[in-house]
Fold:
Amino acid sequence: MISTTITLDQFLRAINETLYMVGFSLLIGSLIGIPIGILLVVTRPGGVLKNKIVYQVLNPIINIVRSLPFIILMVAIIPFTRLIVQTSIGTSAAIVPLIIFISPFIGRLVENSLLEVNPGIVEAAEAMGATPFQVIWYFLLPEAFGSLILSLTTATIGLIGATAMAGTVGGGGIGDLAIVFGYQRFDTFVMVTTVVVLIIFVQSIQSAGNVLARKVRRH
Amino acid sequence: MAMIELKDVCKTYFRQGITNEALKDIQLTVEKGDIYGVIGYSGAGKSTLIRLVNYLEKPTSGQVFVEGKALDSFTVRELRTVKKGIGMIFQHFNLLNSKSVYHNVALPLILSKKSKREINARVTELLEFVGLSDKASSFPNELSGGQKQRVGIARALASNPSILLCDEATSALDPQTTRSILQLLKKINIEYNITIMIITHEMSVIQEICNKVAVMEKGEIIEQGTVLEVFGHPQHPTTKTFVETVIHKSIPPSVKRLIKMENGSRIYSLEIIGDRASEPLVDSLIRSHDVKVNILFANISELQDTTLVNMYLQLQGEPSAIDKAIVYLTNNGAVMKEVVEK
Structure:
């Protein structure tokens, strides 16, 4: 008989919390990060909307945020989190730093995906008299679509890793379960189960991303 | 009215403190209906030159006129409208790999916000014109190089341009495919009355379809004119090198070795252009003059539907008889030049 200190209910709730944190911050993070990535590509020197000021402000900001490990970022911005969600503990309180953590990351990934697009495509678009918006919408984004899906897959997996630390601010989730029960209470069963669940999560997300990317890629 | 005119155009790049003069004092006029070829080695500045015509590159100084209007007088928005009247095709096709052939051709029309029905009619017509009706739902990676370029051409024609720019459009294709693409370009020139400007490093492209040519070297146009003039009488060494790749004009070395220069024989180069080339000139020379004729080399080329004959003749006989023979040939339309052979 397996002996464990948690109930199935607790376990399911932890999975739920993780999905909530990942899903929500991925959604908001993409809404912020994708435009950032596009902005980085179009404002860079030689881009279709080249703008030295925007590029040279945006670029270091992203680097600064990206240089902080999530755990430090999370505690460093507690006052800001409190301002936004009126609390500094709980799942919602974890989401604010998660979004701030993942947005610039998504921005960078999107930038890289868009930069992979053959510059000849952009030249062809400009030769057709496309507006900068049309260049982005009809040429860059469709051509980078497969690569963008893979980028978001990477971001999602990065988010799962970050949520493990959300327990520090009482965010809950599978990672928290592993630390509090598996590690601190020596519950091997919880430890093993959470590891297995995390592996399944990451594997299925990566596979889904790969399949989807291959489907839209065509080349 | 000239379709394309470049006046005193210079283009200089400044990069990391190094200035690079890509184009120097370019004067160039393309008339309506021309197929204008620009030839040069890589780095000669021809890519930059063609990009000035649709303002993908702006000149550092000088002006570019399209259909009589100076491009620097337009706003960015107006320039986009001008660009819709200039189609462009590329060496590496630059098609959207993520989209079907149909969608690729439809793109310029989508950008112009045309109705679905209008787009459908135009794309169907264009695909038929380039011979790819059955490939509408294929994707570019399923096509051969020649087929991709046909899609590129259909896309370039979608917005009914009056000018088509070809940037090394056949350089990535094999000779046979090149020929079929060139025939298609010629058809476009004739049927749609579209003025074409081609840049290439292949003289055969110029020979096959161009009526005018400019030769570029180190950012300058070193020679320009009708293909017949430039091919017939190349002045600059680089032009001569290019011309020699398609028109053979020298005595083969094996023949040279065997030439016997005995009792006052002389060697002449002979050139005839046009209808006269079909007359039996050498035969009538032998029948009417007391000279021995030894043909060392002969070549006939076709340029712009005109025949170009190049020969090397060794004439033997009395000096006065040879002189008379030369006068006879010259009077019959041949350009004679004495060649001193060692």
Observations:
- Chain A touches chain B through 22 residues (CB under 8 Å).
